[in-house]
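Lecture 7 notes: from sequence to structure.
We start with the chain below.
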Amino acid sequence: MDKYQFTRFTIFVKIFMLMNRLISFLGRNLREIIIVSLFTLTTLIILLLFPGEGRFRFEFQKGAPWMHDELIAPFDFPIYKYDDEIAAARDSILREFKPYFLMDPEVAAQQLTRLDAAFELSWQEYTTAGRNTGGQNRTRFTDEMRSNYHRMAADIIRFVYSKGIISNEDVLDRVNNEDATIVIVRNQVAEERDYKEVFTQKKAYEYVIGQLQTYADSLHNESDIEFFRSLNINEFLVPNLYYDAATSGRVKEELISQISLTKGMVQSGQRIISRGELVTAEKYRVLDSLRKEYEKNLGLQGHFNYIFLGKIILVTILMILLYLFLYNFKRKILRSTRETSFILLLILILVAVSSFTIRYDVLSLYFLPFALVPIMIRTFFDSRLAFFIHVVVVLIVGFWAPNSFEFIFLNLIAGLVAIFSLTNSYRRGILFLTAVLIIASYSLVYFAFSIIQEGNLSSIHFKTFLWFAGNGLLILTSYPLIFIFEKSFKFLSDSTLIELSDTNQPLLRELAEKAPGTFQHSLQVANLAEEAIYQIGGNVLLIRTGALYHDIGKMINPGYFIENQVTDTNPHDKLEFEESARIIIDHVSRGVEIGRRHRLPEAIIDFITTHHGTTLVQYFYKSSLKKYPADESHMAKFKYGGPKPFSRETAVLMMADSVEASSRSLKVRNEETLKNLVEQIINYQIEEAQFDNSEITFRDIHRIKQIFLKKLLNIYHVRIEYPQ
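Predicted structure tokens for the same chain:
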């Protein structure tokens, strides 16, 4: 091998080793890489949702003093009108607007031609019938009479069509003013006409009937009257005026576009306000106009890169703070891609909806239920995390929200109210009460802001209270959303725990029937564990539900477990110690199989897998040692497969399960024996390092021992011996 080949070989080896290290690093830190990637992706999406313009650097409120240095106009800018002023001007224009209609002259000509033909036919029938009667009627049917009758009928039709018969009666119904004017376009010539002069089909029919009646009453020959009435002139009344939506819309838009959005100008260099000066209504209008122009111009003057850099820094800081909070206080969440994804998804949904609302001005920002975030987080996690996530969302949206301070203050109060009201989230109707309290808190705080800024009640925008009411109604969507998120992310809500802890659940009913002793044992364990976790702090519903299901694997071979043996015959007497231990140990894996077959949540299955940890089946292991004292090599066959408890709830359940089961074997139950039993069992578990992965302290354990002793004394009705 020459020097060149050796160099190439060395390079290949180094590359291979580097790739191997990289693969090994990715394998060891894959979860952390995914979590960091999720945070990075969330940051990028939030940056894309940010508005493009910059941010006015001064904060101000109506009715409050100006807390900054004297402000001089940096450039010329218009003073904008308020939205209600523009809306009033728009309404005024729309009230005076004249809708456009197209007149079709062909319609009148066609109907007059039909009238001529119908008149001739009717006249021939009338004269023929009159002549057949003989006598005086033979001389009555003159050409002059025929001409007069025809002219009168044609004049009625011609007059109605000259005024116009409209086809869109609903258009005229929307005209509230009877003195209003419409514009009729005929042969490219526009003519204004009073609204009340135009016929609808109904009015035209009534007019024709009236004219016919009047003319008929002027005739003295009854047969002539009948002829004229039989002519049915109203059959020739069809619309000849059609609403011109295109022209009307174009003219309406032109009129609206002519509305001035401003009222006056501020010149560059002009003093706007001084420090300590009160922000009056007029000053507020000028400052708000300057803010709008400043933010609009800031994004157009080549400062975009700096603006975007500032946004990157702000959002990155918030995301880093969120990551550090989870790392220091909720590290379990960071170890779960599912739970981290859920939290980041909630943030993105609220930020995206807020961005859309502000960008397109479709709704008020106060209509959006920001309190949904703490409600969701509180339902699946805890109050501290719920409030922190809520603060992150409100701060992000508050950067581009109008009246940022007011927006942030309002939503922080509403979020706190939501969290405080959900202390018992499993109570029926609690979310309805939460929605009512959120509406009340929004309304009260906004009312306080308004009277501070306006100084009177008449200037308060009471429409905002309707947005708050809509916000509260949207809070009620928590019911279906909790269900959707719970199933999608495999969470466990209090409502689901209540359902599962119902002893009438099919699986618990089956346990009670097949292994009644185990069922009673589970109930007692649930009572012990529930009281302990309530005192030291934890999820009471979770541990109670886990306790009820932790021994469901004993349904497979119930007779091999002593609590289900009703006779003196013990099937283990016919088995080897290792076989007996295998049957006992298998109830854990069998329980997991049953639980997954019945689609129990993983949080409940965790209680099944951890309630014995990695301890030994003591009775059969010690019996084996007595029979085979020299053989300790088979200890693994007598040991549960674990894992060890990894939460306060699973650790407490392990203690409660062992204490309750062992207490049944005591021949003498008094305070001393029960206390020794509790101490012995829990101390053994501590020595076996069963609680090393649990968030539980020695202080908690000491408190648990006291609670177990007190509960066992109550269960077995042991009375304290009083000194003489």
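Points to note: The first strand starts at residue 71 and ends at 72. The CA atoms of residues 163 and 674 lie 106 Å apart.
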